[in-house]
Design goal:
This protein is α+β, with helices and mostly antiparallel strands. It has one domain: 6 Propeller (Neuraminidase). It has helices at 2-31, 35-43, 214-224, 232-241, and strands spanning 62-65, 73-79, 83-88, 91-98, 104-113, 116-122, 125-130, 135-139, 148-152, 162-168, 173-178, 191-198, 203-213, 249-254, 261-265, 270-274, 280-285, 294-299, 305-309, 317-321.
Length: 326
Amino acid sequence: MPSIKLFKAFMKLSFCLFVTITLLCSISACSTEPAGKNTAALLSTTALKDSSFRYNLDQPNSKFKLSKKLTEISGLCAYEDRWLMAVQDEKGAMYQIDMKDGSTQEVIKFSGKGDFEGLANVDTTFYALRADGTLFRIDHWLDEALIKVDKIKTPLTVKNDTEGLCYDPFAHRLLIACKASSQIEAVNHKKRSVYAYNCATSSFDSLPVCSISRKNFKKFIKANYQKFPSYKPYKKEMKKAKKEIIIQPSAIAVHPISKHFYVLSAMSNSLIVLNRQNEIVHVKRLSRKKFEQPEGLTFSTNGDLFIASEGLKKKAKIYKFDYQPL
């Protein structure tokens, strides 16, 4: 009998030791997780979910080669979901492009020579943006004999190098993106800003609608660097640029569904997406083979994305990317 009791006691002690060792191993496994994984977990609050980006920029759904007249295409907007209207660097003219095949249907002259960089429409009224911050309001453009053009001066100048223009239907305003200095009557290259012109009151807001700072851009790239190999060039470029930001907006558009701001940067071949709270939610590196110099950006009402690229060695092109809802 004593031997049986001793055996039972031994078995009970063995079981307790087994449970204790198992628990200790589990705790040890958790505490010795590689430092890289812990860091990734800490950065997950700022890391983007790429699945929420609704376009495949590697595979355009359509591609249009443009005529020689638009080799230096610099601004783009959609009109009536049938036409793409464009401007180019050297002439004060709007080009009416068929959204289905990319053919140029008509040319509407509204000014003489000038560095025109952006185009936007509010219903049938068009606004063209010159690089010195001047807006051109274009009415009755369907009839050459009745066309009416008004120049609108803004506080922005050549120091700001205004290149992006779009209409924000959710706030009834034009958005003007500065390629150079982010400040009015001053020089600041640590960030890039977007300003607003109120169409209803014909007034300019001196406070930026949104800005992309070097600090925030660097923080975003750092948080998502491991997840997206395409971000590798940014680290070298930021280091080379030192205290200046490498983003230089060449176009801007408002997404008709998400309301996000889409900013194109020709210098870094990038597409940056910001929400209405001025937070970066996506950064996309564009292929140099497809986009020699991306200068135009717009959406159709269903969310399809159009990006225009100047022709440096090849013909200028417009790429269409279908919107992919959840």
